[in-house]
Amino acid sequence: MKKLCIALALLTLSGIVPRAEAKVRVISTLQDFASIAQAVGGDKIEVDSLAKGYQDPHFVDAKPSLILKLSKADLLLVAGLELEIGYLPPMLDQSRNAKIHPGNPGYLDLSQGCEVLGRPTGTVTRAMGDVHPFGNPHYWTDPENGRRIARAIAARLAQLDAANAAAYQSGLASFEAKLTDKEKQWASKMTPYAGAKVVTFHDSWPNFAKAFKLEVMGHIEPKPGIPPSPTHTLEIINVIQQNKIKAILVEPYFDQKAPKFIAEKTGAHVVVLYPSVGGTPQITDYLTLFDADTDALVGALGGN
Amino acid sequence: MQKTWLLGVALCACSAGLALAQDTPPPETPPPPEAPAATGGAGTYFNPSIAVIGNFLGVAGNNDTENLPAASLRESEVSFQAVVDPYGRGDFFVSVGKDGAELEEGFLTFTALPWGLLAKIGRMRVPFGKINPLHGHVLPWPDEPLPMVNLLGGEEGWVGDGGSIGKLFALPADIASEATLAVFNGESDGLFTTPETRREVAYLGRLRFFRDLVESTNLDLGFSYGGGPNGLTDTSDTTLHGVDATLRWKPLRTATFRSAMVRAEAIWSRRDDPLATQDANGWFVSAEYQFLKRWFAGARYERSDHADDASLQDRGIAAVLTFWPSEFSQLRTEARRRSYANGETADEILFQVQFAIGAHGAHPF
């Protein structure tokens, strides 16, 4: 009996014996996916994320503390399209967790099934900057892609945890209903500014611009990942002046020196637009993300 | 009968109506457009990721002890990396220099082992300390610190053919820890050698502790122990102890354009010698600061005894400036003064250009 108890204790410590009332442990590279997963999975899952909402999602340090999180996960949610290529592959190897390796049910690339824009059609070279050859990976900034993401997560959770499939379906329905209501509010708020022209720092907003009918006229980065040169800065100043552009959209993790300089020269407003949940303490979930961003845009485009 | 039938129809209609009212289906999301087919055809799906990194070094100044050429493509590294099967991945790094091509590393990593284990087998840069396992192109200097050169067998460091196994642990106080054990054959240029290649092996043990002190700052501590035959007699060994510490500061909001790092490493070498056991040690401390998105400035102090004669000591001091035009190219200059045990003091300027083509590699951490 004593030996049996010791063996059971060792097996439990080693993770072979399932935990009592085991929840599905979900880890996401982005807080946005974690937020949607939480809405769908409710109390049936535990969710965590690797990147913070105010952090450049291209550059996350492969810290051992994050590798430990990966080592315990049942499901990994990734943006794909090489957004995480600089840190996730070595972390996955180091995680010693084959469940969440690509090709297994515990790995979910959410770009599959979403509307991805900016897929290069011709030859792709690094003369184009740090370009993403499979398309722009910032697709979650379109709420309709948020709906697709939620559906994909619900389906995968039901596959991994069939006993709670009904709960995931219920969580999905609730999330979709709230999203639908919110989309009406956001559309109503943004309708007066349909067709508004904007400039962005990085090419992060094609899906957001399409969803809210904005026209992106240029980027402060001359090419993805390349800081603005004086010549390109002058070109952008001309673009803003010629098109009477009111808003320069900048993510919170970029240096605002160049955008502020351009704003001073043109009278445009620098709008810190948050691409992810957690960007500020007020952006607590996927729905408040768009509340905050549409409010910020209305403020700038409306001249407030 | 007819009444019952009508009642049934009415009830069904009511319940359907209620269901519709309660669970209004969300609008249909239009399906996304079809992704374009992958180019290159099915034949390329399983090809490894390939990259080539060029490392050019120019040197100005006089140095008779380390007589580096005025200009040289010091190394070109070709990497091939792919998943082998559901159980592991393969990595090959071929270094091409003026003396020809050499397999710098080639190993299979078993990524699906039970009990949280990770095993590697093949040829690899041995994880003794923080610097030895790194390839030259990810070092924050154009040269190797003196303790690595003097105590770990030369510029190439400790490279071994063998296997390692490691396990991650979560310790109290949010400390992430990793323990690694490894065994290699008894040959590593300039460090270990034995005529009895099957009976004499080199070995390594390493413990690493990592903690996020606050969100922006983390501390990485490592303790290494290793040894192997030095070939001076049938039974003489060289034993190595190492301690390394890395303190990183990188606020997440400004991580791409403001960061700092301080690192230090110390190595103790005990070399059995029939004439006199040599107890040598060496250490370096280095700091770098990122002051713009693409600019880093740093400094390093280093000193090290010679492994084969601990009475000889080299010292050095260096200042480094690095500019990254993009993630895939790097220009670096280092002004260094090294004072060698032979009495020479050399002042030099090193100028390094590195460039990468092919697959996007992992960001160093």
Q: In terms of per-residue confidence, which ranges of chain A show pLDDT below 50 for 5 or more consecutive residues? A: 4-18
Oligomeric status of the shown chains?
Answer: heterodimer
Apparent shape of chain A: globular
Radius of gyration based on Cα positions of chain A: 21 Å
Give the helix proportion of chain A (percent range).
40-55%
**Low-pLDDT ranges of chain B:** 1-25, 36-42
In angstroms, what separates the terminal alpha carbons of chain B? Answer: 79 Å
Q: Which protein chains are joined by the largest interface, and how many residues does each one contribute?
A: A-B, 55 and 53 residues
Distance N terminus to C terminus of chain A?
Answer: 74 Å
Broad structural category of chain A: alpha/beta
DSSP helical segment count of chain B: 2
Report the helical percentage of chain B.
under 10%
Strand content of chain A: 5-15%
Order of helices and strands of chain B: HEEEEEHEEEEEEEEEEE
Report on this model:
The complex is a heterodimer of chains A (304) and B (365). Chain A is an alpha/beta fold and 304 residues long. Chain A is 43% helix and 11% strand. Chain A is built from ten helices and eight strands. Chain A has helices at 2-14, 31-41, 64-71, 88-95, 143-160, 165-190, 206-211, 230-243, 257-266, 286-301, and strands at residues 24-28, 45-49, 75-78, 107-109, 197-200, 215-219, 247-250, 269-272. In chain A, the strands form two sheets. A four-stranded parallel sheet of chain A has the order 2-1-3-4, with helices on one face. In chain A, strand 1 (24-28), helix 2 and strand 2 form a beta-alpha-beta unit. The termini of chain A are far apart. Residues 4-18 of chain A have low confidence and may be disordered. Chain B has helices at residues 2-22, 146-151; strands at 49-61, 71-85, 88-97, 100-110, 117-125, 159-171, 175-185, 201-214, 217-229, 237-249, 259-271, 278-292, 295-306, 309-326, 329-339, 345-358. In chain B, strands 1-2-3-4-5-6-7-8-9-10-11-12-13-14-15-16 form a 16-stranded antiparallel barrel. Chain B is globular. Residues 1-25 and 36-42 of chain B have low confidence and may be disordered. At the A-B interface, helix 3, helix 4, helix 5 and helix 6 of A face strand 6, strand 7 and strand 8 of B.
